[in-house]
Each structure stands twice: as C-alpha cells, then as structure tokens.
C-alpha cells in the first residue's frame, strides 16, 4: 500500500467515523431543535464551515489546483441540492420517532437505493453477489421497521428514515457525476443552498428558531458529520476508487448504532440483533461485490 492509498484509507475511515456521529447526537439535540430546523442547521454548518476552509485554502494558494463546477454540471447540482433538502428533513423526522440505533442501521438502506437507482436510471450492472447483499439489507430494514410483526404494521419513524435513504440514493447518483470537481466547493454548495432551503421550509411551517447553544451545537455537528465527512469521502474516492472507499465507509452505520446504544443506554432486542446480523452479512456482500467490479 503506497502513501496515497494510506491517505485514502485514513480519509474513508475518518469520513465514516464523522458521519456516525450524526444519528445519536442529532437525536440528543432534537429535544431542543425542531426536526426541519435541525436539518437546516446541520447543512448550514457544513456549508459555512467548509466555506471557511475554502477561504483559508485560497489564502494559502491551494484552491487553484481543483476543478471548478461549470454550467454543464448544473442539472446534477440542482438535483443534488433539492435532494439534500428533502433527505435530512426526512431523517430528522424519523429520528424523532424511532431510536437512534435503529436509524443508524437503517441508513445502510442507502446502499440499496443507490444501487437500484444506478441500475434503473443509468444502466449500471448489478452482480449476483450485489443482488444478494441488496436482499439481505432489505430484509434487515424490514425487521428494524416492523412495529408489530403480528399485524405487519411499520414504525413511522423507520419509514421516514427509509425515505431519507431513497433521497440520498438519488443524490449519490447526482454527486457521482460531480466527483472529479472540487470537493470543498461541492460541500459548500450542498450545505448553504440545502440549508437555506430547509430553513425556509422550517419557518414556513412555523418551527421556532432554536436557542443559541443548541443552534451552535447543531452547526458544529453539521460541519463535522456532513461537511468534513463528505469532503473526506470524495478525497478517499480519488485515492482508492469508489468500490474500496464504499467498503471502508460501510462501517459508519455500525459505529453509529454502537454509539447510540451506549449514549441512550438501550438494551438491544432479539429483533435488533437479528437485523444487525443480516445487515452485516448484506453489507459484506455489497462491499465484496463492489470490490470485484
């Protein structure tokens, strides 16, 4: 493994660890910040924080090394922003109605959504092993979402998290078309415009502005869990390629679930442990399939 690959691994693992903070810490802040307002501050924190880093980078003369976005990428950029308004709002609503551990594991459904959307919309091939992984992850999400197995009813919180995953699946396919461009610029655009869009929606539906301390904490969490995480992920893709980066990043939901169980002192149910086993097996199939592609 050369130095570039080592940097790529470090970036991918850090990206996973930073994003894993999102569900448990957002769950804590939702007691003081309304869901849509929380989504707005998370993305504004990502955009403003990365804009500050971009300014520092320009002062050091390093900004000119990256390719800037052009009009050719405008449709994918607009789609990315719109989906990044919808997805975090859905996730915050889901987090307010289900446990942080469940939400963390359900985030792996994003793999399924991204793969199927790539198949249907962009004609990308899906191997047998990837289909097996998709099936196992889907079965795991069904177990995590089931509220009452006897009546086949589903937790509304889990449904909202799955909606967020589908939105991010579409968004991943948009962002994939932009990955050769400046990662910091991409995150700044994502954060500021998606955050402002969510803020307008929050104010329109009558959600109050949070107190200054929860607002600052949400901004800081957004900078780390969305801003730094996304930028590090894109840098890792350059060194490792999409498949190997996804393999390292796949640990994020499991880190998030573990942190959630510790922070909220939750005792895993048998259903949760069965879903966890299926999710691990499904994620292994997906990452092996991606590595073989």
TrEMBL record:
Family annotation (InterPro entries): Diverse_Substrate_Transporter, EamA_dom, EmrE-like
Top-rank taxon: Bacteria
Residue intervals passing through the bilayer: 38-56, 76-93, 105-123, 130-146, 152-171, 183-205, 211-235, 247-264, 270-289
Location of the protein in the cell: Cell membrane
GO cellular component labels: plasma membrane
Key word Nucleus present: no
Entry's family note: Belongs to the EamA transporter family.
Protein name per Swiss-Prot or TrEMBL: DMT family transporter
Native organism: Candidatus Onthenecus intestinigallinarum
